[in-house]
Design goal:
It contains 14 helices and 16 strands.
């Protein structure tokens, strides 16, 4: 069929460019993260995971597992429907209260993923505000870009972290025009931070709302894990905070936090929230336990940042191509998609080290990289072995 030929051609183009994605079938070992096994051809190979977004290893934490077991025994597996039809349980309500407390906001709204949270909130706010202009950082995540497109309002892109460019765009607009600045706290592929306080200054000067994606910051920064905005003392200046339950908190789902009014508007008008089955109460229970633990304990954050610093120092010492990253994310530049995939395959096959290549369209062509994510559970021996492996394959 012509359809099949067309689809085969599309997939072959990805293969030729080195951008065809292959998934590793892995099994993590409970209580033994970051270790696990890869299944391939009926065989199992011991591996160490170096690309997980389970940044604090909370997916393995006893308090999270206990809470999920307890909820499963009490209420069963699924939620039973959308939030409007049987899908709002006491766990969902409690989780939203916990998230609002984490961020110091009036309210929060839980969605099925961080992607859906961004798409729903940005799409709804941009659509509901008359003549709204959304100003978006050029490095924003695909979920934010899709949300902004869904809004069907005017949008402009400002150069990444370029405050002068952002101010020029704001200054060109009437003060009374509704405006929303969308940006991130931690840009996950480069590991750099957004200038939050300075963007808040501009928003206040030019009458704009602020929308920050804290997906890669929440749980990892701030005295109670409220994110980079908490660390910088500006959490109260942000109008909308979006986050995830699937990274530092170790389960799944996404959310926004902000004023009760803004959360209610998204709850009431966002189709991708209204018509989606809510997350399982079992997952909500695990998220509640995880957030409470992370708010009370800094041990996991401190260990993560210490391991990230040790890994970066080792890369520099061995002359390996570490990209400049002030955060917990450790990107190693390769610069070629085919080579990047081949090097990651060698790490897995020869060393049992699992790292996925990061290629276009996730990052621009020519900037392909390995994105390493240390956790509190990686030992110094794990890090040294990774450094040995990288030195061997990059020589």
């Amino acid at each position: 069929m012509i359809y099949d030929q067309h689809f085969d051609g599309l997939l072959q183009s990805l293969r030729n460019e080195g951008n065809y994605r292959t998934f590793a079938e892995i099994l993590r070992s409970r209580g033994n993260f970051p270790n696990g096994v890869r299944r391939l051809g009926g065989q199992e190979q011991p591996i160490t995971v170096w690309c997980s977004n389970d940044y604090l290893a909370m997916a393995q934490h006893p308090v999270v597992l206990a809470a999920m077991h307890d909820a499963l025994d009490k209420v069963g597996a699924g939620s039973g429907g959308t939030r409007n039809i049987a899908g709002t349980t006491a766990y969902h309500v409690e989780l939203e209260r916990e998230l609002a407390a984490l961020h110091g906001t009036e309210a929060a709204l839980v969605c099925t993923s961080g992607y859906v949270a961004n798409e729903a909130a940005l799409g709804t706010l941009g659509r509901m505000l008359p003549n709204c202009l959304i100003l978006s950082d050029s490095f924003n995540h695909a979920s934010m870009i899709d949300g902004i497109k869904t809004a069907r309002c005017e949008r402009v892109v400002f150069r990444h972290n370029d405050l002068a460019h952002l101010e020029a765009l704001l200054a060109a607009q009437p003060l009374e025009r509704p405006k929303l600045i969308a940006f991130e706290s931690v840009y996950s592929m480069d590991g750099d931070f957004g200038p939050i306080a300075e963007i808040c200054d501009l928003a206040e000067r030019y009458n704009a709302l602020t929308y920050i994606d804290e997906v890669h910051g929440v749980g990892l920064y701030g005295a109670s894990g409220g994110g980079v905005a908490e660390r910088d003392g500006v959490m109260g200046r942000i109008d909308v905070i979006s986050g995830t339950l699937a990274k530092a908190f170790g389960v799944m789902g996404g959310y926004i936090a902000g004023s009760a009014r803004i959360c209610d508007v998204v709850r009431s008008f966002a189709a991708n929230f209204i018509f989606t089955t809510s997350i399982s109460p079992v997952i909500a229970a695990g998220a509640i336990a995880s957030i409470r633990h992370v708010r009370a304990s800094s041990a996991e954050r401190e260990a993560l940042h210490a391991n990230a610093a040790y890994l970066k120092a080792g890369l520099v010492e061995r002359g390996l191509p570490l990209m400049d990253s002030p955060s917990h994310i450790v990107p190693v530049r390769i610069g070629d998609p085919v080579r990047c995939k081949a090097l990651c395959d060698r790490l897995m096959d020869e060393w049992g080290i699992y790292v996925q290549p990061i290629n276009y369209p996730t990052v621009p062509k020519g900037t392909e990289r390995m994105r390493l994510t240390p956790s509190p559970q990686h030992t110094r021996a794990d890090i040294d072995r990774l450094l040995d492996a990288l030195e061997s394959i990059l020589a």
